[in-house]
Structures are given as structure tokens and as C-alpha cells.
Fold this sequence. Notes:
61 residues; 3-stranded antiparallel β-sheet; mainly beta
Amino acid sequence: MVAATTTPAPGGLTATASASPSTIARGATVNIAARITSATARSVLVDVEVYGPGGRVHQRV
């Protein structure tokens, strides 16, 4: 598992993400978890992008 990465985001949000396993073969499955937290209730758009050595390989909004 790739260690969770926590990043302060604009507007007082905190984004945390992790992936397991950290290395995969082409066509294999990887589990990705993303958590966005806020001190106040609000609606936000969350965009998860996966990058490989050649650039972005998948995007999910």
C-alpha cells in the first residue's frame, strides 16, 4: 500500500489519498481511496486522477 498522502487544499479543505498495491502490472486492479474533509458543511467537486510514467491514465470526477 502506498502511504496515505495528506494535502491542505484551498478553502480549508484537507485531501487524503492512498493506493494499494503501490505497483501493478498492466490490466491489474488497484484500490484507490480518497477522503476530503472540511471544518464546515459545503458541497465540493472531487476530481481523482491517476498518473503513470507516460502521463494521466485515468480520471474520475
